[in-house]
User: Which sequence fits this backbone?
């Protein structure tokens, strides 16, 4: 059965083993993200390639009718670094040079297969360094995603540092690639490897037990066992014992792998350990001493707690065998660090929370080292996913929302008159550019005979100027604005309202943040059927929500709120993942059952080779019949 430890004691404020009590928290939603450290291993490979280029005269020799580079091994060269330099797979090098499986020696000659798409300028990146940025010159055929993989930087980070890339890449354009938390990088050759033997591994700066275990396809427990538990910790520059063969090394190193290798040593039916970290503020005895912010966050934390409890009761019926501990983690790193001292957390299989950025990063770094999956159930920027491949972010980013909006409008309105309102505000530039780019790509899928060019109207201050001249009486007019500036929105709706309903058919699309705006007149919502993408929608007439409400009230004698529903849905989905697939559930995100969820769905996508998962599910809601309800679509929601 599912066990929730010390439930009554927790609510009564009694401290349980591992429960963390700490200071009041900052506002979760306005915490500024700090730079996340990137793998120094990646940087060393890039700079190693720069040094190696000195010996590359592109000497090509034909062997058995095929072209090969002739490479002379020097001190410090490894199969991995050579493969990255020439952009070929390690197993291709081994096939052409069988003796290399035994290790490399100085002055050894290797024959490297020439890729079919080779060109003279293929090996010139990065072309230099500018402060804390590497400079990358775009080549023909390159994509943002490919470049992000090359440097192990999230695509969103590249777009933030290079706004012009939002409208597409152009050949020879120079991109700035951020090197996080590195003050100075010396372009010099790294310390040499003793050999390429896979019986040992030389630990690089920034590597973790998790990243090394993942590289060789073994479990962290196995890695610790091979090295006597690392009594002095993992240290850069030391050689550790690993397991594997050259073939395995080639497969794991060179081929992009979007699954997380998981060694599930637990047999079916085993008990899983789940740690839930929420801001409950149990150490504050007098609520009168709490700030409004603290009271709000405590309410959010308690809502999540109650929803998770109800989900656990339901999951027990589906066979979840789990022990669940709740930890009172507030806004500070210290509160998270105390929670991580708990033996329960150290041996947990799933962590939900914390909700605040700083403690979340502390726990995420801890979870990466131990191979524990962690879930962020509240809005955070996608930067939290960088270098945290086992982190799942439940709330999709604004950019993903804009991408969904653009694809939806292209699909539903490719025969209509689509008008994009550009607020011209700096803070909206990225979303406007993203919509323009995504719409232009999506519209290509539909018959060219019906495609209309996207009309863009630029605002001036808080006025959109005259819009009537852009309306088409013969077509449906689709107005899109990716800004939530209320003054501009009011100006737009007021001017649209002056048009005749008989002469112009108009629908308006915006962002989910519009749902929180109080100044939009109800008549405008109805007339223009204002529609927005949303992560959630609750059908209170459904049997699922009716049953949840009944169970929630039975437990707590109160009605649930939206955070209670989200707590239920998050626990339900990841709990069902454990039931259906055990610890390998991240490899089956597309297969975990969404049935039984209350007000959202989960459609997780990995954001990069070394980054975590983002939920890109959205549903289009519109104002109709004085209710906010799902828009009737010609197709299911276009979730990428």
Assistant:
């Amino acid at each position: 059965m599912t066990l929730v430890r010390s439930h009554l004691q927790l609510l009564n404020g009694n401290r349980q083993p591992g429960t963390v009590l700490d200071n009041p928290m900052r506002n979760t939603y306005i915490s500024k993200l700090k730079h996340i450290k990137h793998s120094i291993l990646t940087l060393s490979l890039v700079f190693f390639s720069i040094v190696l280029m000195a010996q590359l005269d592109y000497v090509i020799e034909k062997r058995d009718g095929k072209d090969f580079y002739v490479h002379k091994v020097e001190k410090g060269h490894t199969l991995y670094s050579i493969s990255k330099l020439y952009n070929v797979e390690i197993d291709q090098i081994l096939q052409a040079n069988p003796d290399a499986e035994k290790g490399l020696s100085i002055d050894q000659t290797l024959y490297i297969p020439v890729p079919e798409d080779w060109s003279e300028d293929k090996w010139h990146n990065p072309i230099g360094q500018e402060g804390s940025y590497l400079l990358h010159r775009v080549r023909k055929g390159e994509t943002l995603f490919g470049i992000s993989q090359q440097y192990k930087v999230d695509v969103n980070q590249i777009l933030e540092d290079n706004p012009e890339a939002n409208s597409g890449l152009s050949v020879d354009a120079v991109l700035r690639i951020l090197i996080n938390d590195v003050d100075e990088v010396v372009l010099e050759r790294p310390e040499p490897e003793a050999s390429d033997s896979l019986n040992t591994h030389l630990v690089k700066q920034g590597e973790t037990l998790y990243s090394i275990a993942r590289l060789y396809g073994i479990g962290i427990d196995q890695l610790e066992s091979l090295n006597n538990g690392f009594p002095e910790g993992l240290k850069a520059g030391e050689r550790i014992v690993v397991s594997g063969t050259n073939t395995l090394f080639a497969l794991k190193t060179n081929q992009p792998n979007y699954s997380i290798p998981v060694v599930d040593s637990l047999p079916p039916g085993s008990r899983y350990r789940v740690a839930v970290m929420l801001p409950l503020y149990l150490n504050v005895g007098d609520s009168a001493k709490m700030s409004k912010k603290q009271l709000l966050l405590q309410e959010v934390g308690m809502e999540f707690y109650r929803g998770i409890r109800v989900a656990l009761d339901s999951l027990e019926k589906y066979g979840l065998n789990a022990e669940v501990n709740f930890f009172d983690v507030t806004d500070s790193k210290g509160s998270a660090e105390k929670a991580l001292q708990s033996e329960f957390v150290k041996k947990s299989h799933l962590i939900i929370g914390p909700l605040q950025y700083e403690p979340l990063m502390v726990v995420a770094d801890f979870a990466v080292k131990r191979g524990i999956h962690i879930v962020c159930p509240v809005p955070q920027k996608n930067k939290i996913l960088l270098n945290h491949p086992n982190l799942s972010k439940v709330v999709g980013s604004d950019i993903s929302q804009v991408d969904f909006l653009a694809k939806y409008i292209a699909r539903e309105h490719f025969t209509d008159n689509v008008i994009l309102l550009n607020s011209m505000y700096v803070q909206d530039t990225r979303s406007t550019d993203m919509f323009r780019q995504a719409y232009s790509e999506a519209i290509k899928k539909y018959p060219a005979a019906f495609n209309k060019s996207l009309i863009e109207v630029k605002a001036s201050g808080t006025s959109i100027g005259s819009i009537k001249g852009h309306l088409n009486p013969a077509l449906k007019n689709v107005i899109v604005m990716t800004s939530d500036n209320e003054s501009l929105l009011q100006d737009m709706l007021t001017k649209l309202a002056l048009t005749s309903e008989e002469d112009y058919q108009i629908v308006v699309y915006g962002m989910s943040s519009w749902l929180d705006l109080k100044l939009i007149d109800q008549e405008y919502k109805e007339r223009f059927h204002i529609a927005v993408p949303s992560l959630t929608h609750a059908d209170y007439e459904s049997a699922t929500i009716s049953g949840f409400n009944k169970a929630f009230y039975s437990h707590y004698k109160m009605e649930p709120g939206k955070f209670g529903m989200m707590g239920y849905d998050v626990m339900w989905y990841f709990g069902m993942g454990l039931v259906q697939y055990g610890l390998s559930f991240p490899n089956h995100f597309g297969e975990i059952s969404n049935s039984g969820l209350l007000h959202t769905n989960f459609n997780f996508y990995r954001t990069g080779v070394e980054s975590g998962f983002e939920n890109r599910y959205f549903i289009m809601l519109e104002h109709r019949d004085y209710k906010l309800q799902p828009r009737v679509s010609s197709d299911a929601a276009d979730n990428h």
Summary: The first helix runs from residue 7 to 11. The chain has four domains: 1-27+262-395+541-601, 40-121+188-205+218-254, 133-178, 399-534+623-630. The first strand starts at residue 3 and ends at 4.
